[in-house]
Amino acid sequence: ETGISVKTVTRIDGYKITFVSNSYLEYIFRAQKSFHREKVTMHWLRDVVQPNDVVYDIGANVGAYSLYAGYKVKDSGGRVYAFEPAFFNFFSLSRNIEANLLNEIVIPYPVALGRDTREAKFFLSDTIAGSALHGVGRAESEGKEFEAKFQQGVFVTTLDEFCNHSGVAFPNHIKIDVDGTESDIVSGMQTTMNDYKLKSVMIEIDRDVSHGDIEARLVDSGF
């Protein structure tokens, strides 16, 4: 932790993205390196997502990719829904959205997505802003157990149920990066995946966790 908030501007593809960082991890790993270390994600944002699209960022962390997408779609009627249940990351995500004047475009949701709707415990491997590798329902991430630093209550719902609510814009593109619960999320979005309006799913998969299951479901839905 830095003890103070540091405001920095990252310039990428003509956008000036402001981050208000509260930890070294958030400043270096998220604000400075996010747009360079995830080459596949950046290809997806640059070449697949279009300015009038609706983007869902599931596992938004402090918002690097949500903010990039927000700048891309803000002048053409697009929207970004950013899902981040960890309390410290949700605070930073919301503050970064505010700092970039994107709150009418990027909408943060402090909920977890999964295979059903329920109350659950969210086990946090750390409470430093920008951290990841947490676990819903048990202290496990990407198939590996860890000692939780904090236990948080979280509301879990399916993406299908979320999209079914009036006032919710249906996604054209979905990014999923949640460190181990990808299979649960995909199980809860079968109707969404079979809708022609969904054009792409950008998902980070650990093969040792998926065992080909997630890939097979995506192929079965036409991706």
Walkthrough of the structure:
- The chain is α/β, with parallel strands linked by helices.
- Strands 5-4-3-12-13 form a five-stranded parallel β-sheet, covered by helices on one side.
- The chain is built from ten helices and 13 strands.
- The chain is globular, with a radius of gyration of 16 Å.
- The longest helix is centred in the middle third of the chain and has 13 residues, at 87-99.
- The protein has helices at residues 24-32, 34-37, 39-48, 64-73, 87-99, 159-163, 182-187, 190-193, 207-210, 213-220, and strands spanning 6-12, 15-21, 54-58, 79-83, 106-109, 112-113, 118-124, 135-136, 140-141, 144-145, 150-157, 173-176, 200-203.
- The model has no long low-confidence stretch (mean pLDDT 90).
What attributes characterize this protein structure?
four-stranded mixed β-sheet; 10 helices; 26% strand
| Euclidean distance between termini CA atoms | 42 Å
Total strand segments = 13
**Low-pLDDT ranges:** none
The gross shape turns out to be globular
* Strand fraction: 25-35%
Structural class of the secondary elements? alpha/beta
The SSE string, one letter per element, is EEHHHEHEHEEEEEEEHEHHEHH
Largest sheet: 5 strands, parallel
Portion in helices: 25-40%
Summed up, the helix count is 10
Q: Give the overall pLDDT as a whole number.
A: 90
Task: Name the quaternary structure.
Answer: single chain
The whole-angstrom Rg is 16 Å
Q: Record the strand order, biggest sheet.
A: 5-4-3-12-13
